[in-house]
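Priority: medium. Attachment 1 of 2:
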């Protein structure tokens, strides 16, 4: 993959827009972006150096193994998301791993120390990075707030709205590939699978969406957005 193409890929992300081709090239340590297929566990390369990952295409889910050995879905990552060691602090080993849930995922990776070097040379980039981390931390805080103080139906609508916003949908209707199981969704909003089944039936009757094993058809995006905005 050429430097120009790598530059274009990362340049799509607003965080990297002010970096030059040479600066982007200094970040990327792979000659090609890694492609992974659906259900594949992403093999994050072992290294003594911490890495940061950029999701160019697709969707992946972050899974944590709890003390009982059960898998819990912690988050869903979409196109444009960064993940890995983002806070510039050394993290201890954990039991997190990533699994591809879309048909395909394309990921770029670079060393965190290279990121720090670029930040030292580009104060404006460093500032944007701090803002980016702060925004994501705030998003996590809001997620916990929604879990604690909202009912299950509202939490489900907020989750769907978040996914739609990241897809930058411009139409009144949207077909979302159903890459999350009912159990995944239940874990993401801290409820039960049976509750999710009941909520999808209820939302179908209200004309907001239609759920099937292959896709979730959001029949009225504006109605869903209005509900989400009224609880923020």
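Attachment 2 of 2:
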């Amino acid at each position: 993959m050429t430097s120009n193409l790598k530059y274009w890929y990362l340049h799509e992300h607003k965080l990297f827009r002010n970096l030059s081709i040479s600066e982007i090239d200094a970040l990327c340590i792979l000659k090609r972006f890694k492609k992974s297929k659906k259900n594949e566990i992403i093999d994050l390369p072992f290294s003594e150096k911490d890495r940061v990952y950029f999701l160019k295409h697709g969707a992946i889910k972050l899974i944590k193994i709890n003390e009982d050995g059960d898998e819990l879905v912690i988050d869903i990552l979409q196109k444009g998301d960064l993940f890995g060691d983002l806070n510039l602090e050394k993290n201890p080993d954990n039991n997190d791993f990533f699994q591809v849930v879309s048909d395909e995922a394309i990921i770029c990776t670079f060393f965190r120390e290279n990121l720090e070097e670029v930040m030292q040379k580009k104060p404006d980039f460093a500032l944007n990075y701090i803002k980016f981390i702060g925004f994501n931390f705030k998003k996590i805080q809001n997620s916990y707030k929604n879990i604690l103080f909202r009912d299950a139906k509202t939490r489900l609508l907020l989750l769907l709205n978040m996914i739609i916003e990241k897809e930058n949908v411009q139409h009144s209707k949207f077909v979302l590939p159903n890459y999350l199981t009912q159990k995944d969704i239940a874990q993401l909003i801290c409820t039960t699978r049976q509750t999710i089944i009941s909520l999808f039936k209820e939302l179908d009757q209200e004309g907001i969406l239609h759920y099937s094993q292959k896709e979730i058809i959001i029949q009225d995006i504006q109605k869903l957005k209005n509900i989400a905005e009224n609880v923020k």
